[in-house]
Write a structure and sequence with these properties.
The protein is an alpha/beta fold. It has nine helices and 15 strands.
């Protein structure tokens, strides 16, 4: 069956649920599931802390017998492998008697890849596949780690209107207001690790933690881009390409400074660019970036697509997604 507009709407709802599992679901992907019957949501679920139970298991337990003849909207293909931590979700869906399953992405895990959907089809369940930008974004860390062997990288920049990240003497606290800074902490809380360069570490002595009430325990692992001796509790890498060695990290949040930001952009390792722009002018300040390796102005075009924008107090938040040609 060809997916409908209603299907994509429910998948987007499942993707929003999935965000509740990030990053607590690690090492598993954060997946969302919505069970719909006669146009009404009867249950919902997302991957729980530590990766189990899976989203489908949570939703099916919530629905009970009402799951029979329902449609399950799942952001990622239901798993096909049994585990000591729980049964395969494809088997659970069969046992629950759902009529239809709509998935947002195939699972690259070889234990499931395609087999989860085939198991559903063999049981007489109608299967459809669709995707949306929201679904892709919700699984970005898992899919990039699976296909490219590295984390999904978000680069955050807090800028003045004239593109400065600090005064000429290096002072940068604070360019943006409280609302923008709170939003940054919410983004930290959804990351597995946070990285800054050695200059920022020495200049600002950042805590790199989450300081939102109730989310303090979500503080990500700390990573330093430097050739120096690693401080206590901080992982050091010497080159951006070494992010592949950050075990268990699906989402890496790069906060700067200018050297670290430029090095990640030059290596083409930034997947999402998040800019907080304050309505101030600094003039003779520190620029946001150094050389990022562009040979011509033409190379700068066509790389970034607007993903999100919002007002945060007096500051403007804008996010861009990196576009890359398929190999």
């Amino acid at each position: 069956m060809i997916p409908t507009a209603s299907d994509t709407r429910w998948l987007d709802a499942a993707a929003r649920l999935a965000s509740r599992g990030r990053p607590l679901a690690r090492p598993n992907p954060a997946v969302g599931c919505v069970l719909v019957k006669e146009g009404q949501v009867i249950a919902r679920g997302w991957t729980q802390e530590g990766g189990r139970p899976h989203a489908e298991a949570v939703a099916l337990e919530q629905a009970g017998n009402a799951a029979r003849r329902a449609t399950a909207y799942v952001t990622l293909e239901p798993c096909a492998h049994r585990s000591t931590r729980g049964p395969a979700c494809s088997d659970l869906l069969v046992e629950a008697g759902v009529a239809r399953v709509v998935v947002g992405a195939l699972d690259p895990d070889p234990r499931t890849s395609g087999e989860g959907l085939e198991r559903l089809r063999r049981a007489g369940i109608e299967v459809s596949q669709a995707t949306t930008p929201a679904v892709e974004a919700s699984l970005a860390g898992y899919l990039i780690r699976a296909h490219l062997g590295r984390p999904h990288v978000t680069l955050k920049l807090a800028l003045s209107l004239d593109g400065c990240i600090a005064m000429a003497d290096g002072s940068s606290q604070w360019i943006t207001g409280e609302e923008a800074r709170a939003h940054v902490h919410s983004r930290r809380a959804m990351s597995d690790a946070i990285l800054v360069g050695g200059g920022t570490w020495r200049q600002d002595k950042p805590g790199l933690d989450v300081r939102l009430v109730g989310l303090e325990e979500r503080s990500p692992a700390r990573v330093l881009l430097s050739r120096g001796v690693p401080p206590d509790g901080v992982k050091v890498i010497n080159d951006p390409t070494q992010i592949a060695q950050l075990e268990g990290v699906q989402y890496l949040y790069v906060e700067g400074g200018a050297g670290a930001a430029a090095s990640f952009l030059e290596a083409d390792l930034v997947d999402r660019l998040e800019i907080y722009r304050a309505p101030i002018l600094i003039g003779n300040g520190a620029p946001a970036l150094g050389d990022i390796g562009l040979g011509s102005l033409a190379e700068a075009h066509g790389r970034w697509v607007l993903a999100e924008t919002r007002q945060l107090g007096s500051d403007t938040y804008t996010a861009y997604r990196r576009t890359r040609q398929e190999a």
